[in-house]
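Sat 14:20. Reprocessing the chain from the morning session after the first attempt stalled halfway. Input below, unchanged.
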Amino acid sequence: HAATGGIPPEQWGVSKADLRFARGRIGSEVRRGTMAPTAPDPSHASDHYSGLSMSIVVSEFIKPLTLQGGSMSWALMRNPAGLECDVFITHCWAEDAFELIDKALASWRRGWKGAWCCSFALPQNLDIGGLIADPPS
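Finished this time. Tokens:
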């Protein structure tokens, strides 16, 4: 990541293929029962379409996986040299992961290489508050 002299934030993108891969892996985890909703999560693990909130996906899928990879972001695990971002995706933590990914895929325009989305772009195991607290001037 750029905070340590690495890849700048505008290259912390995920590709359309990365989003498809994430959707498949999240779906597999839900079907296997390795990711389940917690009390504040309104989703239902038995509903294979609805899946889980992005909060649960980050805490139970992205964080453990990226911790094993050295605490980098999921985007940089998938694209170690970085991937230029053509679009910025915003979401809320309670948003359904499958809904978010499906809408991003359906909206993907021809020629786009990467999308910046905080859940995938930020190094979730690090102090991300420092990364987003004071934008560079």
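Helices lie at 16-32, 54-68, 74-78, 97-107, 118-121, 128-132.
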